[in-house]
Amino acid sequence: METLWFCLVAIMIAGYVVLDGFDLGAGLVHLFVARDERERKQILGTVGPVWDGNEVWLLAGGGTLYFAFPALYAASFSGFYLALMIVLWLLILRAVSVEVRNHVDSPLWRPFWDVVFGASSSLLCLLFGVALGNVVRGVPLDASGYFFIPLWTNFLPGANAGIIDSYTVLVGLVALSALALHGSLWVALRTAGDLSARSHRAAGRLWWAVLLLTIAVTLVSFDIQPHLYGQFARWPWGCVFPALAILGLGGMLVFIRARDDLKAFLSSCAYLLGMLTSVVFGVYPLVLPANPHPELSLDIHNAAAPLYGLRIGLMWWIPGMILAGCYSVFIYRHFSSRVKPE
Amino acid sequence: MDSALAIHRLHFAFTVTYHYLFPQLTMGLALLLVILKTLAIRTGKPVYDEAVRFWAKILGINFAMGVATGIPMEFQFGTNWAAFSRAAGGVIGQTLAMEGVFSFFLESTFLGLVLFGEKRLGPKMHWFATLMTCIGAWLSGFFIIATDGWMQHPVGYTLGPKGEIVLSSWLGLIFNPWTWWQYAHNMTGSVVTAAFVMAGVGAFYLLLRDHEPHARVFVRIGVVAGLIATIIMLFPTGDRQGYLIAVHQPVTLAAMEGHFQTMQGAPLAILGQPDMDRLALDNPLIVPRILSFLTWNHWTAEVKGLRDFPRNAWPDNIPLLYYAYHIMVGLGTILIAVMVIAAFLLWRGTLFTARPMLWALMLVVPFPYIANTAGWITAEAGRQPWLIYGLMRTAAGVSPRVSAGNGLFTLLGFMGLYMILGILFLWLVWREIDHGPGGLEATKGGH
Fold first, then answer.
1. Where does residue B263 rank: exposed (0-12), middle (13-18), buried (19+ CB within 10 A)?
2. Which residue range(s) make up the domain with B432?
3. Closest chain B residue to A78 measured between Cα atoms?
4. B288 lies in a domain?
5. Tens digits of per-residue pLDDT, A261-283?
6. pLDDT at position B444
7. Residue to substitute from A42, A50, A52, interface B, most B β-carbons within 10 A
8. Contact call for A74 and B116, based on CB within 8 A
């Protein structure tokens, strides 16, 4: 039952990364690929109707995590206190910038909010990567099941590491580049005209950055978290997850070259899912590895809610998410045409 | 009081008080929007459709603010109240996760359709989207109140061998009697806010002699909804809520009422300042025997006073609790009076030209916000010193490793950010009101 909920939480997070990932990525690249107001509006037109629905995945994922693994929620949210609060502020600023930019037609107003939108989107991508890096590296959990780490210490991933160290920044950069690529493929897919072509070219260049960073982070991760080796050695079938990532990465190159925007975007989804599930699989059954005292790690058993609650949760969670999936499909079909310049 | 504890309490109090300025309008307005849209379809008059578009835009801005300030609430359970989350997450995680799964997806999808989809959807589907948005918002309210209701009156749990709180009855959690009365009281309060805002904006236009056809619709619907809601606020929902407090939190009742001395035929204090050194009310203005009657329906019933409860069971900020409760009741009484008079004039057909009454309707718009906020302070300060009533003290629920310094840093950050948000919000709403509901301007849409 705990493993099932572990998978369901992972699915929620994966849904969030793939969905909100493209609008974060679009926010990140829109400053660079859009040349004028008309094109900015095109990009925002692809994001406007769906971004808040995408963000709901974060909320619902957070709620699911809270309900299924309360000890994990308590430990990680209080331990990453400062980083999470900054994430909250960035989410708020980003929401504000999308909502208010079109209300005033002024040469000062719109560029200001565009920069806020771009900057908050970029920092969010970076921080989500950093957060993932922290989970892989492990955190200094104490015997009572809590920890607190400052934003940074000496930037080294040793015993006294901060949230931001050289390793987690590397993971952050992977997230940044991968979501930038994801976002530009989305823009290429959902817009028409010059903007689409330019975004497509940007994706072609970003691909190389993603490739290099992916190779680097893979090598370093095995060094930082030895648990990963054992995991793939014990259950070799788990290699399907990294394989999915590699397939997605290769697929992107092929389909970007072939100018098949839809397939390139879907390959990017596959890449993101592959990377994320590889990490999740590599860490399982831990949910938050402890470092330097691995025996204090939180795993799916000591972090989970009691069995009755988990069982009854399935009764409402599954129908609820099927409904939610229906809404999502409906709204994407409803707003599925390419956004043309006005 | 340990300073980290004080900071974390202030952190939650500030962010939740600010947050609830928005949902209280959203939930009530969503219902009024369904009524407007229904009238639009039934009558076929364009004035109703224009009214729907106008209020949908305000709902959209308000909703966005509610979401932006609501996300930090969910996070803070983990960041600032980790020990509470660890102990009770298995119970209230249920209701909070249900909110995410059942209402957030619903609201965000259908509000988008209400705002951007009118042309593509056609009137019937657009009405349906309005209805679904309303259901989503009201469900969201339910799950939050179910969470708070459980903290006020924990049911459906057992204690495990290590003292951990284990959910044992999901139905017990959902059908907690406290939850249902608090929900009814709270949602009526939300309709009160929306009704006063709608009537107030209508009165504003009528006083300016601007957008008059729409303004008459706003005032009529606002006054009718407001009359019904303010009365339900008092009876039965307020009455029942008070009864539950008297039965399950008698010390809270004594503190709310400023009732220090146990007596039969206890008086009701209308005004007065609680003096915590003398343990009495200063300058009391009292009505004999009313408290006994209101609490137990009996003129000479005994009501236990604060002095007869152990000190460590007292709410830790009795003056705040006392004032919050009296402000809520006082403003509630004024709101009922305003709506009764306005409804009378509406029935006589003179309301739209009765300028003093229109002035009154316009000027009382802040009152329901204050009353709703004061009501929540009554509920939450009244729950102290417990985080989960009778089960967990507030001091025991705080994150053990987050220091006062880090807490203050983020509290100040939120204050700054929320100030900017507040300015932007007021200004955006003002622009919509300034544009007005009439004519072509209103049909263009936001994005």
1. middle
2. 3-262+304-443
3. B79
4. no
5. 899 999 999 999 999 999 999 88
6. 39
7. A52
8. no
Phi and psi at residue A9, to the nearest 5°? -60, -40
Q: What is the pTM of this model?
A: 0.93
| Structure-derived torsion over alpha carbons of residues A327, A329, A330, A333, reported in degrees to the nearest 10 | 160
A-interface mutation test, from B15, B57, B75, most A Cβ less than 10 A away:
B75
Interface of A with B in 116-135 (CB under 8 A): none
- Asked whether the predicted pLDDT for residue B445 surpasses 70, the reply is no
Write down the number of H helices and E strands in chain A.
12, 2
Whether residue B278 lies inside any domain: the answer is no
Q: Residue B2: what pLDDT?
A: 60
Q: For A175-195, how does the pLDDT look when each residue is reduced to its tens digit (9 = 90+)?
A: 999 999 999 999 999 888 888
* Total domain count, chain B: 1
Residues of A in contact with B174 (CB under 8 A): none
Comparing CB atoms, the residue among A64, A89, A309 nearest residue B100 is A64
Q: What is the pLDDT of residues B88-103, one digit of tens each?
A: 999 999 999 999 999 9
Question: Using one digit for the tens of pLDDT, what is the confidence trace for B8-49?
Answer: 999 999 999 999 999 999 999 999 999 999 999 999 999 999
* Among the partner residues B78, B403, B446, nearest to A74 by beta-carbon distance: B78
Distance CA B10, CA B6 (A): 6
Strands (E), B267-423: 268-275, 280-287, 302-303, 386-388, 392-393
Closest chain A residue to B82 measured between Cα atoms? A74
Instruction: Kindly tell me if the per-residue pLDDT of B443 is higher than 50.
Output: no
Phi, psi dihedral angles at A341 (to 5 degrees): -60, 140
Tokens of B397: 């629920």
Question: In a mutagenesis test of the A interface, which of B86, B165, B173, B409 is the best target, namely the one with the most A β-carbons within 10 Å?
Answer: B86
Q: What is the pLDDT of residue B270?
A: 92
**Cα B323 to Cα B256: distance, rounded to the nearest angstrom:** 8
Q: Look up residue A150 and give its DSSP letter.
A: -
Listed in order, strand segments (DSSP E) in B342-399 are: 386-388, 392-393
Q: Is residue B273 part of a domain?
A: no
From B79, B88, B109, residue closest to A77, measured CB to CB: B79
Cα A227 to Cα A223: distance, rounded to the nearest angstrom = 10
